[in-house]
Amino acid sequence: MAKKIPVRQCIGCGEMKDKKEMIRVIRTKEGEITLDPTGRKNGRGAYLCACAECLQRAKKSRGLERSFKTSIPVSVYENLEKEFQSGNGK
């Protein structure tokens, strides 16, 4: 039997992709929102494609707000953009 590959939906573009290709954004119990490059941290997760375009789309469509059921300050998006650019995502 073939091994099942975990698939997740990007909150930016809506495409279903292999979980390993995606970047996980988490909200911790304390309400902190950060990138999770390992994919193993505790917290509510949402997935984005590894491109800045999908982060912009998620920002525009309020995808993270829907996923985490909370309002997200602009500073969080700025931090995520910096982490994306620094290559911390993948």
Note the main attributes of this structure:
single chain; 90 residues; alpha+beta; Hypothetical Cytosolic Protein, Chain: A; three-stranded antiparallel β-sheet; two-stranded antiparallel sheet; 3 helices; 5 strands; 24% strand; globular
Q: Could you write a compact summary of the structure shown?
A:
This protein has helices at residues 52-61, 63-68, 74-85, and strands spanning 7-9, 16-18, 22-27, 33-36, 44-49. With 90 residues, the chain is α+β, with helices and mostly antiparallel strands.
Q: What features would you describe in this structure?
A:
There is one protein chain. This protein is an alpha+beta fold and 90 residues long. The chain has one domain (7-85): Hypothetical Cytosolic Protein, Chain: A, CATH 3.30.1230.10. Helices cover 31% and strands 24% of the residues. Strand 3 and strand 4 (33-36) form a beta hairpin. The longest helix has 12 residues, at 74-85. The chain is globular, with a radius of gyration of 13 Å.
SSE topology:
Layout: E1 7-9, E2 16-18, E3 22-27, E4 33-36, E5 44-49, H1 52-61, H2 63-68, H3 74-85
Antiparallel strand pairs: 1-2, 3-4, 3-5
Largest sheet: 3 strands, antiparallel
Order of helices and strands: EEEEEHHH
Proportion of residues in β-strands: 15-25%
Instruction: List the quaternary state of the chains.
Output: single chain
Structure classification: alpha+beta
Give the second-level CATH assignment, the architecture: 2-Layer Sandwich
**The level-1 CATH class:** Alpha Beta
CATH superfamily membership: YlxR-like
| CATH topology grouping | Hypothetical Cytosolic Protein, Chain: A
Radius of gyration: 13 Å
Amino- and carboxy-terminal Cα gap: 30 Å
Total beta-strand segments:
5
Strand numbers in spatial order across the main sheet = 4-3-5
Q: What would you call the shape?
A: globular
Give the integer mean of the pLDDT values.
88
The number of helical elements comes to 3
